[in-house]
Amino acid sequence: MHTFRVLSQSRLEAHNKAVLEMKKKVQASRDLYSFHLEAVQNIVRLHKANSNACLEEVSALTTSSACSIDEFLASGDETTSSLFDELHNALTSHQGEMALFARELRQVNALRYNIELAYAYFGLGRIQKLFS
User: Fold this and answer.
1) Each residue's pLDDT tens digit, 89-117
2) Cellular component terms, GO, for this chain's entry (predicted)?
3) Dist. CA 115–CA 52, nearest whole Å
4) Alpha-carbon distance 113 to 12, whole Å?
5) What's the CA gap between 76 and 117, in Å, rounded?
């Protein structure tokens, strides 16, 4: 019986030692799991912060681009308006010049007609005097 008791005691100690080892390993696994979980959470936070910063930068650039486009279009409107005004003024000026040129041309042609008519009457009068 003593041998049985010693053997049982030895087995109990070995079992207790194995249980302690197992508890240490389970605790180490828990600690390692917690460490890895915390590391993953930190990575997620880091990526989230980086994504938010990138989104803010994109938003700022988009706003800036929209303002630049609005300014460009506004300046284009002013430039276009001034170009059309200049073109309209030039065409109006040319229209006035063309009207003046046409009037002068009519006057010159009317004067030539009258001079040619006078020469014709003069020539006709001379011819009639020759034959009469």
Assistant:
1) 888 888 888 988 999 999 998 999 888 88
2) cytoskeleton
3) 92
4) 146
5) 59
